[in-house]
Specification:
By secondary structure, the protein is mainly α. Helix content is 68%, strand content 0%. The protein has 2 domains: 120 residues, no CATH class; 131 residues, no CATH class. It has 13 helices and no strands. The longest helix has 19 residues. The protein is globular, with a radius of gyration of 19 Å.
Amino acid sequence: MKLELIKLFNKIGVLFASCDGKYTSCEREFIEGILAGIKKNSIISDEEYADLLREDIHVTFESVLQDYEKFMKNCSDEQKRLVNENIISFIEGVINADGVSMPEETKLLERWIADTKSESFAYTSKSQKEIIKAFQSIKKPEFEERTFWEKLGESAKKAGLKVIYAALLLYYVMVAKSTSTKDKALIAGALAYLVSPIDIIPDGIPVVGFADDLVVLLYVLKTVRENVTDEIKMQAKTKLGDWFKKIDENELAEVL
């Protein structure tokens, strides 16, 4: 099942990377990085993975959609939700890999969401509560500043604008002198979780997106929102410029 999933992601990646007529090296590197991440915790052999990357893929929207529907037939409802969450996250990463989202890519994403009915698989309030409950119960790793910045930089484009903005807001709240010790500890746990290999999403489908991370970050951000000043928002937005050439204010507004 995991080999089929990697093949599906590869085809989806090629479809969206090439839909504007330009398949950039940044997009290819992003796709291969995600595929390598799925492979890491699977039983796929190095030979199978190498053969996959060597395939000369010619895809159409219709052919990829057909492969997607075929794959989903063998998934449970929970697996379908996870796959869809991660596909959308993956697509957003592909179209932003070179720092610019083209109109053709955005339109194709809208078509994909409509045709796959991906919105119906979005996280429900029940599943969000389950993730938050799991986060509250796990032993949090220690927060290390150097590791945080290294991992944040490495995963910025994969994680997406909203995840990174939420993480930055929390970081700047954490280092503010006016923040209570209790809130600092809560934020440190969330940020350490973000950059750690711990995964609280149920097993069954390799997770390649950051859907659960965003749920956790927004939960903590909501808890400490009184500490988020205009100055902190400006600091976070300024830092985003290190990784994102284009910043959508509407996306940022969805975070806070």
